[in-house]
Predict the 3D structure of the following.
Amino acid sequence: MTPTVAFADPKNQTWEQVSEGVTRTLLRAAPGEKRVLIKISAGRTYPQHTHAVPDEVFVVAGTYCDPGVENGREFAAGSYLYYPPGTAHRASSPSGSEGCTILVWNSGVPG
């Protein structure tokens, strides 16, 4: 039996507004894991939050920063960040940048 490949086209996804200039769409959710695509406009920030499980961020496009990581260092497309469980963070894209698109993956069993 050939496994079925699951796919999502972001253009056809339902996008939810999280805050001004920040939208997200759920790509995949299964027990214990979730993958979300998030778009952040320049100068905008995803509200601060924490997760009980690891949070992994891959910068798909643009410039990403988190004021709590290396004094707000900017991360370019292709960058990867790992937030341990319980880490407070807030995703943003600097003013004057092109904004950013990030892929966020949460997985694991809360400890």
Q: What stands out?
A: The mean pLDDT is 92. Strands lie at 16-19, 22-30, 33-40, 55-65, 74-76, 80-83, 100-107. The first strand starts at residue 16 and ends at 19.
